[in-house]
Design brief:
Elements: H1 5-9, H2 24-36, E1 37-41, E2 45-46, E3 51-60, E4 66-74, E5 81-90, E6 93-100, E7 104-111, E8 117-119, E9 123-125, H3 166-181, E10 188-189, H4 191-207, H5 220-226, E11 233-240, H6 245-253, H7 256-262, E12 269-275, E13 281-288
Parallel strand pairs: 10-12
Antiparallel strand pairs: 1-3, 2-3, 3-6, 4-5, 4-7, 7-8, 7-9, 11-13, 12-13
Biased composition (Low complexity): 140-159
Signal peptide: 1-27
Pfam families: CAP
Length: 289
């Protein structure tokens, strides 16, 4: 669950860039680059395959390509060791490296142009047990029973809207019912948000993954913008395995992070995408224009 695009971009820890002692012209260029183009490092975590994973990003108004390197560093007595390293020449992108997991204290180090170095916070990995599908950020606990494939054709709601399928509109109705209990106004099912949500569920289904980040590295904020929806605040819930609208909404409501998105009175619009194949996969996109 991410509560806003800002929170998404700040998921890593952004520390002050370390700049080399060079001539004044080069130093000025480095400072200008650091001001408009950021390097971000996320804390390492254990993924659903039991691997230690770290993500680094180059984001902002970055005008030129440069090599960005992401390292998983182990914090040990003496010089810290590099467990895994990967690099790529990019303008803006997210880079992910994975390594075999061994319990210990780790952090992510990202280096970029002009000697920028950013370290994430250290995290103590006590277990390499694969992260379950239900995690506080990207998922909710799935049901294992099989499901029938619904139609992806939009169907009319009682209000006359033709945004979304019947099962997607049921998710909207149940979500609004929960919001009403907390004093929040109803969300409008928006065609652009629904497109972003449905496309993400379809992409996860087709490529067999489960994450807020698309297989091509796009964030949910990127997907909303590409669908043509401009927003001041946005959030996303996803889930896999639930068979009905009632089950998935209840699953989200039972998870504090997902419930916080549903009960955020700031949001005014929603898009819901449901794809049965391989899941079912569910995506809720929330936003305030």
């Amino acid at each position: 669950m991410k509560t806003s695009l800002r929170a998404l971009l700040c998921a890593g820890v952004l520390l002050a860039a370390t700049l080399p002692a060079v001539g004044s012209a080069s130093a000025a260029s480095a400072q200008a680059e650091a001001a408009r183009c950021r390097i971000v490092a996320s804390k390492p975590a254990v993924n659903q395959l039991g691997q230690l994973t770290a993500v680094g990003s180059r984001t902002g108004r970055c005008f030129g390509k440069t090599r960005v390197r992401v390292r998983i560093k182990q914090s040990v007595a003496g010089p810290d060791t590099t467990l895994k390293s990967g690099s790529k020449v990019v303008r803006t992108a997210k880079l992910r490296v994975r390594a075999n997991c061994v319990p210990g204290v780790y952090y992510t180090q990202v280096t970029g142009r002009f000697g920028q170095v950013v370290n994430s916070r250290r995290v103590n990995i006590t277990s390499c047990t694969p992260a379950p599908a239900p995690s506080p950020s990207p998922s909710a606990s799935p049901s294992a029973s099989p499901s029938a494939s619904p139609s992806a054709t939009p169907s009319a709601t009682p209000s006359g809207s033709t945004v979304g399928t019947a099962v997607e509109n049921e998710v909207v109705r149940l979500t609004n019912a929960e919001r009403a209990k907390g004093g929040c106004g109803p969300l409008t099912h928006d065609a652009k948000l629904r497109t972003a949500a449905f496309n993400h569920s379809a992409d996860m289904s087709a490529k067999n993954y489960f994450s807020h980040d698309s297989a091509d590295g796009r964030s949910f904020g990127d997907r909303l913008k590409q669908a043509g929806f401009s927003f001041r605040a946005a959030g996303e819930n996803i889930a896999k395995g639930y068979q009905t609208a009632a089950q998935v909404v209840q699953g989200w409501m039972n998870s504090p992070g997902h419930k916080a998105n549903i009960m955020n009175c700031t949001y005014t619009h929603i898009g819901v995408g449901h794809v049965a194949a391989g899941g079912p996969y569910w995506t809720q996109d929330f936003a305030k224009p």
